[in-house]
Structure formats: structure tokens, C-alpha cells
Write a structure and sequence with these properties.
Layout: E1 2-5, E2 9-12, E3 19-21, E4 33-37, E5 45-50, E6 57-61, H1 76-81, E7 89-96, E8 105-106, E9 112-115, E10 120-123, E11 135-136
Parallel strand pairs: 3-10
Antiparallel strand pairs: 1-2, 3-4, 4-5, 5-6, 6-7, 7-8, 7-9, 8-11, 9-10
Length: 139
């Protein structure tokens, strides 16, 4: 499948790699289908690109890259909704990259949980204040 993107032009993706967010992503609830890719194999950043909205691409990263002890308490209902059977999940957090990249932040308070096998995902808003929604990426 080919998708058009504003940031990356036309990209080729495997239909089996489309991730479905039944509830969308915070602020973008109407967008349900995304693909994850990296523009550089050595980068710690990924792009979560909407399949249906060319302008919508969110920078993401593995939260363990900035918080060694990241272990949010996720309710079992999230895993049930995503049909997780063998804990084959990927956790990503959205990154905000301002003009001054040194001030980039990652939202540790609302991780994206992805069932890798089913290609289903859900963004979870944590119910505690242990994790900062504006955690600095670069210290």
C-alpha cells in the first residue's frame, strides 16, 4: 500500500503493519490507522504516521531511552481490550520537538500500548502524577 505524507512524501507500507487505534490518539480521535517507521536506523525516534491524514505524523520514542525505571501501572482492562495474550507489546510515548530541539519533551504520562501481533493500539492516560507529561528528552 502507498500512503501520501506531508513530511515524508509517498511511502510504501505493508498492509499488515497498519496499527489500529479504535479510540484514536489524544487530540486526534478521528484518526484510527497509523504506521510506525524510522527514518534512520540509528535514531531513538520513530514516526507514528496517520495512514489517512497526510499532515499527521507524531514523533515517538521508547520511554526507557529517557527513564530507565519506566514501569507504569497499566490496568488489565487495557490488555484485555487490546487482546494481549503473551505480553508481546510495544510501548511508545509521544515526543514534542520545538524549534529548539534541546527543549524536546516526551509525554511519559500517556503511553501508547501496542499489541504487536494484532496491530491494535491504545493510548493510556496514567492516573497518577509519577510520570511527567513534559519530561525532557535531552538533559
Amino acid at each position: 500500500m502507498e500512503i501520501s505524507t506531508t513530511k515524508f512524501g509517498t511511502i510504501q507500507i505493508d498492509d499488515n503493519k497498519v496499527i489500529v487505534f479504535d479510540n484514536g490518539i489524544l487530540g486526534f480521535e478521528q484518526n484510527k490507522r497509523f504506521v510506525i517507521f524510522s527514518t534512520n536506523a540509528m535514531s531513538k525516534f520513530y514516526w507514528l504516521q496517520s495512514v489517512d491524514e497526510p499532515d499527521l505524523a507524531l514523533a515517538c520514542m521508547d520511554p526507557l531511552n529517557v527513564c530507565d525505571d519506566y514501569s507504569p501501572k497499566i490496568d488489565q482492562s487495557v490488555f484485555d481490550e487490546l487482546q494481549v495474550v503473551d505480553n508481546n507489546i510495544l510501548v511508545l510515548c509521544v515526543v514534542v520537538i520545538p524549534a529548539d530541539i534541546a527543549k524536546a519533551t516526551v509525554n511519559l504520562a500517556a503511553p501508547i500500548i501496542i499489541n504487536v501481533e494484532k496491530q491494535k493500539a491504545l493510548q493510556v492516560v496514567l492516573q497518577n502524577d509519577k510520570y511527567n507529561p513534559r519530561h525532557l528528552v535531552f538533559k
